């Protein structure tokens, strides 16, 4: 549940330009045609540029670069186009934030999104929905830095010294990053399932009903944050299996997962550098 402190500041959340709002509505509508979405994307120069950069990135690209939205649609398909449009719109919604390196922020965000996308494929969760949730999962950090830059700086500094981010946010702000991120996603008319994935990402076991997206966000963030931890003689694969089991996830196909994550590692960081 949103705190009173957060609800009082709803008006400070960024609003999407009407054209972008209509575009997101279109890509989230299963009945929208490829032609209509391509036309809407092409009308916005910045969104078009970001979509094409993503389409040609290491993760989504192929041997030959695409030079138009129509080509991107043909190459990538409708689901991937939806994902890229949403990612591009979110990246552009908050163009500058005091004290935040956006290339680093979006690099981390896309890295976690790619991990979530891969995990989703292995437990029957829509991969594009998991990727989109990943793109939005930590946008609350940007919003806090926008509305409370000095407090956001205090929280970052204390967290770097080992402080608990959740406790710091609640003590200094009266709300936490996932709550404000979830409220923004709700205001932007994303699905309740996706909103829950953002809101309960830090403690998915508290979600009622169960939020598979929250579990995937928790796992993906944990994998990214603790990838290089010292584990003694425990293999990475064993650590990963234990992490997934402890999260209470639905059944997941573990075959080749470590190799796939190793293959993905760094691709999100590169995408973030291209877009920021």
From TrEMBL:
Matching SUPFAM superfamilies: HD-domain/PDEase-like
Top-rank taxon, per record: Bacteria
Gene3D superfamilies per UniProt: Hypothetical protein af1432
UniProt cross-references to InterPro entries, sorted A to Z: HDOD, RNase_Y/CdgJ
Ranges of residues in domain HDOD: 13-204
Name under which the protein is recorded: HDOD domain-containing protein
Lineage, opening ranks: Bacteria, Pseudomonadati, Pseudomonadota, Gammaproteobacteria, Alteromonadales
């Amino acid at each position: 549940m949103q705190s009173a402190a957060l609800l009082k500041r709803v008006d400070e959340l960024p609003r999407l330009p009407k054209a972008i709002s209509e575009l997101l509505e279109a890509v989230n509508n299963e009945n929208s045609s490829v032609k209509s979405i391509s036309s809407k994307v092409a009308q916005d120069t910045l969104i078009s540029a970001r979509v094409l950069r993503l389409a040609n990135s290491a993760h989504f690209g192929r041997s030959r670069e695409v030079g138009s939205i129509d080509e991107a649609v043909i190459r990538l398909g409708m689901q991937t186009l939806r994902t890229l449009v949403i990612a591009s719109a979110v990246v552009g919604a908050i163009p500058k934030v005091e004290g935040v390196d956006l290339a680093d922020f979006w690099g981390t965000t896309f890295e976690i999104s790619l991990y979530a996308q891969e995990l989703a494929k292995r437990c029957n969760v829509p991969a594009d929905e998991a990727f989109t949730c990943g793109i939005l999962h930590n946008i609350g950090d940007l919003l806090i830095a926008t509305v409370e830059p000095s407090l956001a700086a205090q929280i970052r500094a204390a967290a770097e010294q080992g402080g608990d981010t959740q406790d710091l946010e609640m003590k200094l702000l009266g709300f936490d990053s996932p709550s404000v991120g979830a409220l923004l996603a709700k205001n932007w008319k994303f699905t309740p399932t996706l909103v829950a994935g953002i809101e309960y990402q830090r403690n998915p076991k508290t979600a009622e009903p169960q939020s598979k997206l929250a579990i995937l966000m928790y796992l993906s963030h944990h994998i990214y944050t603790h990838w290089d931890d010292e584990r003694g003689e425990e293999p990475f694969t064993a650590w990963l299996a234990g992490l997934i089991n402890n999260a209470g996830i639905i059944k997941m196909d573990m075959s080749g997962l470590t190799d796939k994550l190793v293959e993905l590692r760094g691709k999100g960081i590169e995408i973030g550098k291209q877009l920021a």
